[in-house]
Amino acid sequence: MTALTSSTQPTSTDPATSARPATPSDQRPKRRRKRYTEDQVTLGRVVLRMAAGFVVLIIFVIPYLIMFFGSVKTKSEIRSVDPTYFPTEWHWENYINMWSTPETPLVQNLISTIVIAVFATLLVLLVALPAAYYTARFRFPGRMVFLFLVIVTQMLQPAVLTSGLFRQLSFFGISDTWLAMILVNAAFNLSFATWIMHSFFASVPKEVDEAAQIDGAGRLTVLFKINLPLVWPGIVTAIVFTFVACWNEFAASLVILSTAGNQPLSVALTKFVGQYETSWHFVFGVSIVAIIPVVVLFMLIEKRLVGGLTAGSVK
């Protein structure tokens, strides 16, 4: 009986604890931290990247938009005291009239630019491709010296050597010709293309070549059917940089090509800038036309570049 009574009695508590009043921190509800899911974090990063890319795009596109709007304005509107970004009237006839201006034959200039850029690029690929493959696959005496001399030529620009190039080409009787500019452009872009493709060929294991040779493939078969699909991104890079450099070349063309019809668009563009007056609407129009082939090239090359990146893993 005594034990039962003692078990039913309430337990004593600490007087100090029972006498302490509740503080505001005890009464405040606990806040739960908001945890972001992995999908939300990924979505936020994607949005930030898209916003940053959009800002960069606007910064790069604005000059081209100004140039485009200027190409459909009149000369007086461009030289107005209070010019506007958007034309008051759209003069699309500027793109037609600029081809028949007395300053320069733009049709012939466009043909010259295409011929020089295309054939110079093909010549660079024809020479740089086997050179890059050989230097990447074989160890021969003077290999490092050869590669060093190749990269040293990048320090020499056509603007520095124009007088010497002019005398040399005149000696061979090919100055003021397309052939002269094809050789000059190919020579000054050959070293860059060789180094780019050399690094890609060197990244391909030699065991790939040895396995193909064991199966009976010759050296040319190994180069074109085995290595080229693996190094296609390097070839595309060499094509793009070589073509753009040849397309935009100015200094050597200005000195070597004296006939107006043989000059490329980069030189013909200066004919609209006079001492007392400048036809800015034609300058902008010719610039837009000169940009289009390069943009088309990048659009065509993009798919090839992606295909080249995955060709090695698929095969």
Helix content range: over 70%
Fourth-tier CATH superfamily name of the largest domain: MetI-like
Radius of gyration: 34 Å
CATH class descriptor name of the largest domain: Mainly Alpha
How many separate domains make up the residues?
2
Count of individual beta strands: 0
**Given the helix and strand composition, which structural class is it?**
mainly alpha
The total of helices stands at 16
How far from one another are the termini? 92 Å
Short recap of the structure:
The protein has 315 residues and is mostly helical. It has helices spanning 2-8, 15-19, 24-27, 38-71, 75-78, 94-97, 106-137, 143-152, 158-172, 178-203, 206-214, 219-230, 232-248, 251-256, 265-268, 280-314.
Question: Would you write up a description of this structure?
Answer:
It is a single chain. By secondary structure, the chain is mainly α. The chain folds into 2 domains: 38-71; 104-314, MetI-like (MetI-like fold, Orthogonal Bundle), CATH 1.10.3720.10. The protein has helices at residues 2-8, 15-19, 24-27, 38-71, 75-78, 94-97, 106-137, 143-152, 158-172, 178-203, 206-214, 219-230, 232-248, 251-256, 265-268, 280-314. The N and C termini lie far apart (92 Å). 24% of the residues are buried. Mean pLDDT is 80; it is low at 1-12, 14-18 and 308-315.
